[in-house]
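The following block was generated as part of the benchmark described in Methods. Ligand: NAP.
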Amino acid sequence: MAGRKTWRVGVAGLGTVGAGLLTFLAEHPDFAPAGGRATVTGVSARSRSRPRPFDIAKLPWFDDPVALAASPETDVFVELIGGSDGPAKAAVEAALKAGKPVVTANKALIAEHGAELAALAEAQGVPLLFEAAVMGGVPAVKMVREALVGDEIRSIAGILNGTCNYILTEMEATGRSFAEVLAEAQRLGYAEADPTMDVGGFDAAHKISILAALAFGCAPNYAAAEIEGIAGVELLDIQLCRDLGYRIKLVASADRSPDGVLVRVYPSLAPLAHPLAQTGGALNALFIEGARTGRIFVQGPGAGSGPTAAAVAADIADVMAGAVRPVFQAPAGELLPFTPVDPSKSIGRAYLRLSVKDEPGVIAAVSEALAEAGVSIESFLQKPVENAPDSLKGGVPIVLTTHAVAESVLKAAIEHIAGLPAVLDRPRLLRIARI
Ligand SMILES: NC(=O)c1ccc[n+]([C@@H]2O[C@H](COP(=O)([O-])OP(=O)(O)OC[C@H]3O[C@@H](n4cnc5c(N)ncnc54)[C@H](OP(=O)(O)O)[C@@H]3O)[C@@H](O)[C@H]2O)c1
């Protein structure tokens, strides 16, 4: 079509996502869903000579992503480097200060510096878009920021880290330990050489912090997130939970109440038939609860070159369409303060696994101690285990689930029963997801 504007795109970061984007744009030179045409006019990465799945020989090369961001030849800057600070942040700031639209897949950057970057983008009147930062190919950001802005979202909960979900799924399917499955996932390239961001729950916390900000109209507050990863999830708990009718998932959730916002990432129990429990392998899934819409459930690929690049391309299309909305749900200066709720006040059901001496009267002693502390037991399971893990310290496991109880009461009860003479180790606590 004659007269179409050509947008000159500078891409910093040519790894998994950058490679996906350049491959897509090379294979679809006619990609113009919003009327304009996108053409890559500059690239930046660490190594110019590293073999890439596409030819960059004819593309202008920038050693410094900040120079690419500020270049007069760049109309749209796409940041696919990663990391909350360092070159990614410097380059995004440089592009915004130069009045250029920015597209990024960087959840750490948005979760930790989103409010200040939003203020900068809005002062310049340019979009800062990050669809790929949450759930990769699943359009969660646009759904929450745009499509659901006419509703009042009360809570969001989901599986936001494919690596953790893959590891938990494999542990259950193959009966192998966390360490064994993680090592295999690293060999196969499903987990990073340094898996801390994923298995520590930090990646999921970045994503749920962004969703909380979009859903509740507040600034992202990653520092307020309660985070526990999956490194402490034992195969024994996976098996015992299954016997009780649950599956362990790393659930990231954000809830709004009159007291404020609670953002958490915990290994949590989901009933076996629940869609979150049914979300296996590297898939992601999300529930959104709106005051008027009710419940929405989406599931799909949360990572990977193709799906993530598709989300980046969609943001480039939005830039070409010319719509400029607030970066979060409201203009940066009008975002609500994020008041974190004290997690000790939160109320929920729990799973406790104890290792106890195999002698009469133990169950009665535990039940009595819990009753005294104000914790009411919902179900009890005592089962001999084959190949008892070291963590049982020579004892036998007893497992119980509780009725809803305040976290502070539960924690005090755990301290109490940990001190009983028949209890051999600190009880293992897992929350039952409120989904
Ligand atoms: N992978 C996914 O499925 C996925 C999904 C959603 C969001 N994301 C996000 O997307 C971003 C990119 O992830 P990725 O998986 O594509 O990462 P990656 O494969 O590690 O690629 C990172 C790229 O950044 C380049 N880079 C590193 N430091 C640089 C610097 N100082 N200057 C210029 N370039 C530099 C690297 O250059 P070299 O190639 O020369 O080393 C590499 O090309 C991250 O924010 C990530 O969280 C990824």
